[in-house]
Amino acid sequence: MTGRERRRLDPNRGALKILERRLDIVVSRFLYPHLARVWNPYSGQLQRRFSVADATVAPAGWPEASTRLRVLLVSDVHTGIFLRPETLAALVHALMALDPDLVAVAGDLITGRSSELDPFLQALAPLAAAPLGAWSCLGNHDYFGGDPERVCASLEGIGIRTLRNESVKLAHGGSAVVVGGIDDLVMGRPDWTALVEQHGTPHLLLAHNPDLFYAAAAHGVPLTLSGHTHGGQIRLPSGPPIIRQSRFCLDEGAYAFQSSLLVVSRGLGSVGLPWRWGADPEAILLEVVPPA
Predict the structure, then answer these.
(1) For residues 60 and 266, what is the distance between their CA atoms, to the nearest angstrom?
(2) Strands 134-136 and 160-162
(3) What residues does 253 pair with on adjacent strands?
(4) Is residue 285 within 8 Å of residue 63, measured between CB atoms?
(5) Which of 1, 35, 139, 235 has the most CB atoms around its CB within 10 Å?
(6) What is the pLDDT of residues 194-250, one digit of tens each?
(7) pTM (2 decimals)?
(8) 81, part of any domain
């Protein structure tokens, strides 16, 4: 990326974004719980179309003494009316069979209510069995229920710790890897000073919204993991995303800017409509290796 890519409309700000956000909150919390009884095909679609992407990355600035690190990136689960707990449990079981060293959960665990997470906690609990643990950051939907602290506490109860403008130092392969999480760009309060004052600049950063990438690059973060965009959720063949959530055109996949890397997952769940087309749900398994 050049850093100059921009969309005409900023999806993170402005009157249209405020209107969309309020409509999203109302629909997610009050309308779809009733409509879901009439039409709710997403769990079946998820079972048929879910896939795991894999890639090997060697970020500049990664600890040279560390060994290969297997990171499982899961984002945008959106527990709630479109997803059945047993469907999620089966996917999590299959993902943990890939033996990741660390699980990164890049926000949006819920859709509209903080209580939506409760029936899914048992399904998510195996993620914490990774040797280096499971770590999460908050997304915009995690604020929609008005109680992000409850989301954090529920995850903490199953061993998944949420990083809000904070970091943790993990021993791995004879070295130390610093994992950080920055608060959501739209609904939270990203605080870069608080993030780096604990253990320095993170080597691996969880940032729900990929539009935080250039700020992360300016702070020298080697690798940022994001979600939020759903890859557009609906895309025509060879066409652009229908729903465009990134101002900087960071819609899905891997990106490089200067010495920093970004990986954006299309995510697991669905919002707005219980349907995805041309932007199928996914998780990503990353092999992170020291630079040559």
Answers:
(1) 24
(2) parallel
(3) 264
(4) no
(5) 139
(6) 999 999 999 999 999 999 999 999 999 999 999 999 999 999 888 888 888 999 999
(7) 0.95
(8) yes
